[in-house]
Design a protein that fits this description.
Strands 1, 10, 11, 12, 13, 14, 15, 16 and 17 form a nine-stranded mixed sheet that branches. Strands 2-9-8-7-6-5-4-3 form an eight-stranded parallel sheet. By secondary structure, it is of the alpha/beta class. Helix 4 packs across helix 5. Strand 7, helix 7 and strand 8 form a beta-alpha-beta unit. The chain folds into two domains: about 120 residues, Lyase, Ornithine Decarboxylase, Chain A, domain 1; about 220 residues, TIM Barrel, CATH 3.20.20.10. The two termini are about 35 Å apart. The model has no long low-confidence stretch (mean pLDDT about 95). Helix content is about 30%, strand content about 25%.
Length: about 375
């Protein structure tokens, strides 16, 4: 099948770029002795997770139990649920997964640990735990110090659980500049203190799991970090470029759209809106826009309705007509993937793979 035969909107994956991204990450992890447990929240496709495992990943990371259930289809050696699992229904499903797959859960509360312990005990399972610490984002995670030590002590004492280490996410470091270097060094100092204190208290810290795609290739500079779980790196997106972590040449995913109207002077409408693209804004830019038109970078994709994408073309020299096709690099590819039932892997102009996004909508 040729790309020209696809109906729109369609999410395209450049296989050459994706393969290069996967290989680069695998090489980096091996070169620096970092355990790689990639986050599947970006691609949500078991076949792509298989590629990550084949390249040396130790296991997979997911956010929700539903994503874990999808990934069990490829029998991963282990799964990290990097999100607190709260509630009996979710925990029962997790224990079913744990019957055949080694499972670790990241959590930051005694409530989550107690519920997990009860479920593990009832099912006869043993579940690993990474205690989440707040490295600066202020989203989830206990504070380093007495709060962390108290939670680790309780986790280690609960039946059905074993303490594996700590997890963190440096999401407050968004743009790679001198300030980011300082912030990342501070994270390393924090982690070094955490590991020292926990081990002095008698709790060996086997895994220090963290990282993000923006800071990914600086991971070896972070003291004590020994596991990385990047997600976006497989495709990259506009915001990955804008934060300085990569280039447009490393972006594998784009959305093919059709121009459906040019009735308003200086504007064209494409057949994709908020049900096609992420509503995330471009990082570090004042303009409101929802993607970069690869065919016309001067255009501003500045407004969306559900099915309409409004593109300001007043600064574009190219003349667009109804029926023309354009490719748009989304700001945030993880969210865009979740909006599409299937995606198309291509080389040149030939579609080689049609993948169903099996993890789409797995929010529970």
């Amino acid at each position: 099948m040729n790309i020209a035969e696809l109906d729109t909107p369609a999410l395209l994956i450049d296989l050459d770029i994706m393969d290069r991204n996967l290989g680069k990450m695998a090489d980096y992890a091996r070169a620096h002795g970092l355990r790689l447990r990639p986050h599947t929240k970006t691609h949500k496709i078991p076949a792509l997770a298989e590629r990550q495992l084949a390249l040396g990943a130790a296991g997979l990371t997911v956010a929700k139990v539903g994503e874990a259930e999808v990934m069990t289809k490829i029998d991963p050696p282990e799964l990290l649920v990097a999100y607190p699992v709260i509630g009996k229904q979710k925990l029962d499903r997790l224990m079913t997964i744990a019957a055949n797959t080694r499972v670790t859960v990241a959590l930051d509360s005694l409530t989550a640990a107690t519920e997990l312990s009860a479920a593990a005990q009832a099912s006869g399972r043993t579940i690993g735990v990474l205690v989440e610490i707040d490295a600066g984002l202020g989203r989830v995670g206990v504070q380093a110090g007495p709060d962390l030590l108290a939670l680790v002590q309780r986790v280690a004492s609960l039946p059905g659980l074993f303490f594996e280490g700590v997890a963190f996410y440096p999401g407050h470091i968004k743009v790679l500049n001198e300030a980011a270097d300082v912030a990342l060094a501070a994270v390393g100092t924090l982690l070094d203190g955490v590991v020292r204190n926990l081990e002095a208290a008698g709790f060996p810290v086997k895994i220090v799991s963290g990282g993000s795609t923006p800071t990914l290739y600086l991971s070896h500079q972070v003291a004590r970090l020994n596991e990385i779980r990047p997600g976006t790196y497989i495709f990259n997106d506009r915001n990955t470029v804008l934060c300085g972590a990569t280039t447009y040449n490393d972006c594998a995913a784009s959305i093919l759209a059709t121009v459906v109207s040019t009735a308003v002077k200086g504007q064209m409408i494409i057949d994709g809106g908020s049900k096609t693209f992420s509503s995330d804004r471009p990082m570090g830019l004042e303009e409101v826009s929802f993607g970069r038109l690869l065919d016309a970078p001067e255009a501003v994709f500045g407004k969306m309705n559900e099915e309409h994408g409004f593109v300001d073309i007043r600064k574009v020299s190219k003349l667009f007509q109804v029926g023309d096709r354009v490719r748009v690099l989304p700001n945030h590819v993880c969210v865009a993937m979740n909006l599409h039932e299937q995606v198309y892997g291509y080389r040149g102009e030939t579609v080689e793979h049609v993948w169903r996004v099996e993890g789409r909508g797995k929010l529970q």
